[in-house]
Known about the structure:
By secondary structure, the chain is mostly helical. The chain is built from 4 helices and no strands. The two termini are 22 Å apart.
Amino acid sequence: MVKVYYREAFHIFDVQIPLSVKVGEANFYSQSIIQFEPKSKVAAAYQELAKELMESGC
């Protein structure tokens, strides 16, 4: 839905970051999700977002 309404105004990335309690736990321990739970779906999604961001040139 966001892509339909905002695709002309903003760059919308393909990656969707899933909700996870692990992100809050990582924050509590002052760690990134990649440090705290590197094999989680959330860590993988953030890594994919970083790749997509670098490839887009934003």
